[in-house]
Write a structure and sequence with these properties.
- The chain is mainly α and about 180 residues long.
- The protein has two domains: about 50 residues, no CATH class; about 80 residues.
- It has six helices and no strands.
- It is globular.
Length: about 180
Amino acid sequence: MLTYLFDSNDLLSKFRKHSIIAGIIFILLGAVGIIFPAVMSIATTLFIGWLLFFGGILAGYHNYQAHKKEWLGWLKAFLLVLMGLVIVFYPMSGIATLGLLLAIYFLLDGFGSFGMAFTLRPMKGWWWMLVNSIISIALGILFLIGWPLSSLLLIGLLVGISLFFDGLTLLMLGIAIKVE
């Protein structure tokens, strides 16, 4: 069980406590995303925008420290900062772009899983891969049908569902851990 992974009951107790707390927080955030998907879409996009911005600042700092005359390093830093600021100041454009990227991802994932399903076909349970491919393709089409407007709801909804189930998993894991 998990006691083999941890050195002491104290560590296991802390892990249990923090899993339960994080699980509850994730469940609440996920519920907000499910109930208010537009808010979660904007929050997710702003988070990505700020990550790009600060990543560009760090890339610029690194370039300054390591090789000041390397113009490609400066170009990378500039583009990251610029993209981050565009997403932060124009989040709807960022949401539309993120929606298109997710549509492409789901379609590629679906077609890849479809091919894998028929490669695995003689094996028991191969149809799970087929079901996965059908769901992925359906999600990709769902994003494309109403793009860019559907992105506002779908991104927040998917992030909310993901956070909710991550939280549920952490909560159940924390509850299942027995401390001696």
